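User: My collaborator sent over this chain with a note saying "see what the structure looks like." That's all I know about it. Can you take a look?
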Amino acid sequence: MRPVRFNIYWMWGIILAIILGWSYWDGGGRQSKIGWDFLRDTLLPSGQVERVQVMNRETAQIWLRPGAVRLYKGQERYKYIPDKGPQFFFTIGSLEKFENDYEAAREAAGGRLPKGGEWPSLTFENENSGWSAFFWQAFPFLLIVVFWIILMRRMSGGAGGAGGGAGGVFSVGKAKARLFDKNNDQRVTFKDVAGLAEVKVEVMEVVDFLRNPKKYSELGGKIPKGALLVGPPGTGKTLLAKAVAGEADVPFFSISGSDFVEMFVGVGASRVRDLFKQAKDKAPCIVFIDEIDAIGRARSKNSGWSSNDERENTLNQLLTEMDGFGTNAGVIVLAATNRADILDKALLRAGRFDRQIEVGLPDVKERAEIFAVHLRPLKLDPNLDTGFLARQTPGFSGADIANVCNEAALIAARKDKTQVERQDFLDAVDRIIGGLERKNKILTDEEKRTIAYHEAGHATVSWMCKWANPLLKVTIIPRGRALGAAWYLPDERQITTREQMVHELASLLGGRASEEMTFGEISSGALNDLERATKQAYAMVAYYGMSEAVGNRSFYDSTGQSEMMFGKPYSEEMAQLIDREVDGLLKQCYDLARQVLQEHREGLKALAELLLEREVIFSEDLERIFGKRQAGAKNPLESVSGSAAGQDERRVSEAAVEAENMPTDPSAVSAGEEVNDEN
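Assistant: Without extra context I'll predict from the sequence alone. Here is the result:
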């Protein structure tokens, strides 16, 4: 059982409870409020009243005789009245009127009670409440002060602790950076970072600047002031920063960009000043700002139009601290972001961030190294080939690979296996890319047949077109939101030709063409295909200059400034020309898909019927029906270490899972976006 830790806020609760208890339970009970009629008609004539006393000309208090107290405590309404008076009270509106009414009641009774007792006299007393009155007057203000202290402590991240030290309420402007040193228990080194060989060389040089400054200063060189890690999410930017913290023999401050932003005006700039003050005191050192885009957004792109925006003030202070009149000798700023395009130009200029280090997606060799790192804690099949897993996951980031390894272990445990096998990893990739299989989803025979011919159309066109991405697997089992899916293994190329894009467009439109040829009508199942084909066609015409009519023009804006424009960067005539060129390009690709399907109609039918029978087919089934792919096109079977893949071995890849037969609402389309990036 965990021990209960004392908190100073308990003291406030105890004091408040004592005060309230003393006020409401003084004398073992509490007075009951009555009216003048009850006093005049019941209490006074019965002889139960011992005395009546007026306090401060406002309240009349009634003391009962001991026997009467026991009589009234037996009633439900008055059971909490105290044993020792006063037991009742009522508020006096006018003292003179009360005296007259009391005297009239005494005269009506003849001045004597039924049992011969004397009529209780009326007395007056003024009482000074002293500390009690002062407390109840000051209590609201004390409560506001306590609430403000608690709020400020929470806003400042609890700085000062329970005792209010280390600044307490005044520490809201202090930086929240965490300090790492070489004795930190959670130390990460460059050995723990797989892949990213070139990036590690760049980052290790930053560490070397601080370790051996004379090596560079003797030649007249200056240590760079900052380095910016840029790359897609999950590629290891923060992990690299942790490795720098573990390798450098200097203090390492780590803080997130969002930690500077606060609801109070001026807090962000104050925290920037405090952070660099701490860094200068411990120089040489490294300051790491994660997700710097939270405060480094270009000032012209801020959503607010106010010139006094808190983020802008924080950014201005950061610019001044990094390269202003002051000196930051021995302080290197390391930052990370996946949105470098929105950062302010003044932040990116030389003298602040002298270097921009690109942290991209790993290639096949680096993916194998990353798999080796994440496979260490797993109980694996001794025959598992790490290179095979790397080849089946193009476009995966390091975080994606970690997720695959974890998902594979969960799948193996779900099947009560004693070790994680290759099939578990392939199922994990299927699960991550396409979603969970939904074999219990009810489909009519007509819908299932339509989906089968749709998927067979994709498979046929992609297999027969020379430059289309080679297909690995096709299924008509619902997965995620898709009712059918196809997995491809695209080449990891850096540039793509027009012919290659045309073949890819034709394979995208092969499903719609197959439906039209087979059933004489089309369905909503091609929504995702049409969306991707349209975007790629517009990119070919308007961005890549792959249209003779438009010419060698590109309307792509890599600076991102077009986001602030209210109009298009071209005329209406050019817009119409682009639309006509896109229509012609899509028609050309659609005709190519229909031509391929017409020439291989028997193979299309055989493939669709096989898909209806098995629900899942693989690339070897296509090779048996259509033969080997054309010369120059890569056969995915050749990438599996030369071993023939059996039907039960599901080959998957991250790059192209097509979500078929999607609902007509575009907002519901989420699965199956092609990740192959065309440069």
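A starting point for your reply to your collaborator: Confidence is low (pLDDT under 50) at residues 158-169, 631-679.
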